[in-house]
Amino acid sequence: MKTKIVDMKEVIKIVHHKEAGDFLKFIIRLEKIEEATCYICGAKVTLENFKALTRKSGKILFCCDKLECYRFFIETLRK
Amino acid sequence: MAAILNILVEIIELIKKYGILGLLLLFIALCIYLIIHFFRILLDEDKSNCWRGKVYKSIYKLTKKREAEKKYIANDIAGRLNLARRQMPFGKESIPKALKVEWIDGSQVESYIPKEGELVVKLESAETQEKNIVSLAQALVSRTTLIGVRYILNEPLENAMDLNLVKNLLNEIRNRTILDWYMRYEYMPKIDQREDLKEWNSKIVEIDERGLFTRLLLVELDNYGKKIAGRLKTNEMELEIEELIEFLYKIATKTYGENAPLDYLTKNIKIGVLIVGETSKVLFSGIEPYIRAFIHKLNQRIEAIYVLSFSKEFLREYDEKSSKVFEEIQTFLHQKIEQDFKVQKDFELAYSCTDVNGRRRKAKCIRYIPIY
After folding, report:
1. B351, β-bridge pairs
2. Whether residue B319 sits in one domain with residue B309
3. How many CB pairs under 8 A join A and B?
4. Residue B152 falls within a domain, yes or no?
5. Closest approach of chain A CAs to the CA of B13, in angstroms?
6. Whole-angstrom Cα distance, residue B101 to residue B74?
7. Which residue of A29, A34, B201, B286 has the fewest C-beta atoms within 10 A of its own C-beta?
8. Residue B332 to residue B354: CA distance in whole angstroms
9. pLDDT level of residue B1 (50, 70, 90 thresholds)
10. Are B26 and B15 a contacting pair, CB within 8 Å?
11. Which domain holds residue B221?
């Protein structure tokens, strides 16, 4: 008897690289912060190097586009 | 190749015999086949996503319009990753979960407020779609696998499992460029960073090569997570999982005739493994030794028994009769188990893998849950 596979979906939001700048500006305004910093390396997150963000315990966390930072960022989210 | 030649010969014969009518019949049969194939794609969401991705890619290449680019990126990623994950069975489910990508675009860009725990990822242009696929594969694996046990795992072990899950997922996409990019820029640099990670990784790779990573280890970790839900992490728990990996590693690296423990009994994990792999043993002794081993496992009140069958792929070529007997004995063993013991067959997964000597083997993993 063949085993039936059950399915569920994980939603991930994506933003186009040409629209990411406007989105980042909006989030910075929303959060009432001076500038965004990478949650992993602490570097300033700009329109050019922005890679990802999430909300954790109500606070928005940003991640820059270094491969290492993105990897650690998604690892941190699951804790 | 021989099969294709046979079909071609038959087609020519048909045309010779019936002339234009034969050709017409063939054309109708081809049309019916194409229509059925088309509907099968339409009904399969992931396949139709891939096709939609291809169509929008062409539109984007011609028009350079951002809307077409976005539709290409989203459909292509969802289609490819979701089709790939279907090749990674994990008990009755697939691992990781299916992916749905949603653009934040248009007016949303300046009004969208991310919800708690929601991940927003910036994707690059369609020209670097490989990077986009890798980014989302990593996020998907990280967010939807090893649920309920991550807080117990030590960091290098957790990373080793994630790296191999992403590698397997990208491998199933069957695109060398994507896998190569991941291996070169993500997998290898990460492995080279830490000795302890390298060590855990080599064990996970061996277990994976025998097909026991997603079919056994992750299934047991998922059950473990459910069993210990809400409990504080203890050293005992950490050790239980690490020793489970050692247990499976010994089975995965067991050579012909070598003994390896086949039962693993701790406070929270009670599993047994039965390996039906030695052709000579199966052919000359029949199912008796396996039935005795099964009874022994039941006497130990084991909670899940995995019957792993490995048959030599080449056996059929050089001894067709033995190959047939080998298959029949295996089928008989499972019939006997289901008939004589109070067990529930949880799942049955057929696959192909390599043995310790690098030879291809056909394999089957069946999980039985005894009812006491």
Report:
1. B363
2. yes
3. 160
4. yes
5. 38
6. 6
7. A34
8. 25
9. low
10. yes
11. 44-105+124-253
